[in-house]
Amino acid sequence: MLLWALLALSGLAQADSFDHRHKGWNSLLERHVHWVREGVASEVDYPAFARDRQALDTYLAQLSAVSRAEFNGWARDQRLAFLINAYNAFTVQLILDHYPIASIKDIGSLFGSPWKRRFIPLLGQTLSLDDLEHGLIRQPGAYDEPRIHFVVNCASVGCPALRPEALVAEQLEGQLEDSLRRFLGDRQRNRFDRQGKQLEVSRIFD
Known about the structure:
This protein has one domain. The chain contains 8 helices and 6 strands, in the order ααββααααββααββ.
C-alpha cells in the first residue's frame, strides 16, 4: 500500500514539473526590457533578444510541452500567469521571426493581421495571438480579470508596457495592480485637459 502511495506521489510530481516561477522568461525580460519615462513605459531590446534566441526558444518549448490536462489541474493564478506570459513571449518570437521591422503591423497583409496568424503550439492546439487573448485569457467566466489589459503586450505603440519580469502566481495580484497604476500614470495616454475640462484616456478603455 505504501509503495502504491509513493508511486502515485512520484507520478504527480512528474506530471506537475512545469516551472511556475517562469525563470527562463524572467531572466530574458530582466536582461532585455527596461522601464522608461519614469516607469510608465518600457523599451524592448529586440537585437539583444535575438542574440538570446536559444534561451527564448527553450522557454517557448517548455510552454508548448504543457498538456491541457496538466494545465487544468493548476490553480487559477498559475493558469492566468501562464497564459499571459505565453502571449507576451510568443509575441516576441513573432517579431524576432521578422526582425528588423518598424512595427508588428508590418507582419500583416491585406488578407490578415499578425494577431490572427496561427503559429502558437499551446495546450494541444495551434493558436493565434487573438485566440490566446480572446479565447483563453478573456474567455467569459474563466478569469474575469479586467486588469489583464495592462499586462498583455501586443508590441504596438498603443499597448501597455511589457514588464521587465515574468508574471508569477504568488505575485500576480501585486503585478496586475502595479501595471494598472503605471498605465494610468502615463500622461501621454491619459490626461486631464484643464482648459477644455475634458478627460482624455487611452483607446484601451473603449
